[in-house]
Write a structure and sequence with these properties.
The complex is a heterodimer of chains A (247) and B (469).
Chain A lengths: L1 E5 L6 H13 L4 E4 L10 H13 L3 E2 L3 H5 L10 H13 L2 H8 L4 E4 L2 E4 L15 H9 L5 E4 L6 E5 L5 E4 L7 E2 L6 E4 L13 E7 L4 E7 L3 H10 L4 H9 L2
Parallel strand pairs in A: 1-2, 2-3, 5-6, 6-10
Antiparallel strand pairs in A: 1-11, 4-5, 7-8, 7-10, 9-12, 11-12
Helix pairs in contact in A: 7-8
Chain B lengths: L9 E2 L2 E9 L3 E7 L10 E6 L8 H12 L11 E4 L8 E4 L4 E2 H6 L5 H19 L3 E2 L8 E3 L5 E3 L6 E2 L22 H4 L7 H16 L10 H5 L9 H4 L5 H10 L11 H9 L8 H4 L5 H12 L9 H4 L2 E5 L9 H14 L5 E8 L14 H16 L9 E7 L3 H11 L4 E5 L8 H5 L1 H8 L3 E5 L10
Parallel strand pairs in B: 12-13, 12-15, 13-14, 15-16
Antiparallel strand pairs in B: 1-2, 2-3, 3-4, 4-6, 5-6, 7-9, 8-11, 9-10
Helix pairs in contact in B: 3-5, 3-9, 5-8, 15-17
Classes of the chains: A alpha/beta (247), B alpha/beta (469).
Chain lengths: 247, 469
Amino acid sequence: MRIALLSDIHANLEALTTCLAHARDNGASRYAFLGDLVGYGADPRGVVDVVSRYVKEGALAVKGNHDEAIEEDAKGYFNDAARAAIDWARDSLDDEQKRFLATLPLMLREGDICFVHASAASPARWNYIDSGSEAQHCIDATDATYTFCGHLHDQALYFTTGQGRMHEFRPIPGTPIPVRDHRRWLAIVGTVGQPRDRNPAAAYTMFDREREEVTFHRVAYDAGAAADKIRKCGLPGSLAYRVELGI
Amino acid sequence: MLERFAPGAQLDGFVVGECIHAGGNAFIYKATPPPERDHGFPVVLKVPAIGRAQPTIAIESFEMEEMIHPLLSGSHVPRFVSAGDLSATPYVAMEYVDGESLTAIIARAPVPLDEVVRIGGALADAVSSVHTQEVIHLDIKPENFILRRDGLAVLLDFGFAHHARYPDLLAERQHFAAGSSPYVSPEQLRNDRSDPRSDLFALGVLLYELATGTQPFGAPTTYAGMRDRLWRAPPPPRAIAAEIPPWLQEIILRCLEPAAESRYQSAAHLAFDLRHPEQVPLTDRATRTQVGALSQIGHWWRSRRERPASLRNAGIQAPVIMVAIDTNHPDDERHPALQWTTRQIVSLNPEFRLLCVSVISAAPLGEGATDNETASGRHLQHVLRLRQWIEPLKLPTSRRSLHVIESASAGDTLLELARANNVNLIVLGAPWPKQKKLAWLRSVASNVAANAQCSVHIVRVLRTPHRPV
């Protein structure tokens, strides 16, 4: 079974459809969406519709902090541009779409795999896994062999070393990495719709459970089109710029 | 898992034969493969010593080997056959390499100069081959090299290796001296397992041993003892064996520099220098006769500042570039274009080696009385033309070398030279534009482009064709 892990789509329909097609062409038979379907981008409705259709067909999805912020009484800090995009998305989404986001779980388990947007250690606090010790906190909270998360936008792979600590590895896209199950692994799968490493290409990750292999992908898509849509719907220009340049 | 297999035992379809090595981390058995894994070459099984009483490093080491070995190709590594699952029957099956272990050769060191050069070049070729496949060995020592009968060196044991594309399961091993203490590099002693120049340090130790019969830093048994090499310069080889030429001392001491950036930046460059002693630029390393206090301080100071090297595209970061120059036609209008391209290419690379090659016909053009018409006079004339060609690029002589070769087949000679010197890129001119279309198929450029094992850059003079009104 090959499972495609897609996170931080951020209302970028162009990036999402490109990644889904790439995953299908590469043999994905399951899909997991790791949160932040909305925010920043111009297509919250389109993205929520695609994801909810996949979920009806058996895909997994968890909630991200931007999805939570759609709820009326949501708290949490966002910068002005991000706040504007969330307010605009709240007005754009219909009740059914909002209900879909509101009922997403914070975390899911399937066999020895854990899916979560931020950290499995108190997922509602949206902590970033930006170090070996944060990764350690995350895996200490469950007994999962494999943990997949998003929230941070750069792809990373953490693994337990002989010393029992989590060690960070920066993966190289397109290289299948053996991830044997006698060891514990945590992957930050990358962002579909909002890359920030000066490379606008969409990011997602594929996991092959039988072969014990994880492959990080970067996929070129029409970022210009996604940016134009952001400009046309009146969202802050900086959001368009970020998508175009990947910053 | 610790008990040894008796001959005749079965392991994942293999029939176990004689045990040819029983080391701390693994047993190695000759074996007969099952028909579906019989590729027509003899096979050995490496069975790791994994058990309750064993340290977990044996597991990590097995995982690294199982991950890295199948990715490696070429004749400098044993061919990989299969690996057994870690949880059931961990083993790696690979080609049995027939030849002499470097251990046996080192045991009779010092060996004659020509043997140091021949063996050293072979070892550097093997390391270069592995480095260009994005792998650092990190456990270079005599036991891990086999010299085949044809002179080729084969590198064994990738259990401590590092691959640029894979997580390094041994990354956090504190005070981890991969293999044996005489060969471990200063970077490894600082827990940095990502610098390919660590392997060049170990090669330097091997060259030192081959040339002098002694180990430059001894075989310390404590971590503090190993750290000596971070600041202590080894006795110059010529102080031990005066017959060692200065150029070889230069090469060896350059490999043993505590700061990786002061060493050779690629194994291919080291192999090249070993094979072209006349081209080795000599520094104070060549003439050092003892370990002076000043050089000691310099040694220590240099070791403090480190610029890390990346393994990815190792060959491309410190490339060996070969440019073919037609010195038979020094006024050819293609020369400026070739020069311009060469300048562009070398300016992109802070560290490179440029081979300037001219292939001239073997037979003298005619009988004559002047120097220019004798064979050696003619040779010299072409060397001078090569020098004239390269002069405007203002390259230090340590970066470039001049080669005039007599041969009837320029293409084959260039290909052979490129292979022998681990060349990454060949630059050469397209056939003369006035020649007919068919000329391309017969040209040196098409032969080289079609048959080279590396990249080929073909240079043309840009011209606007004449269009009749």
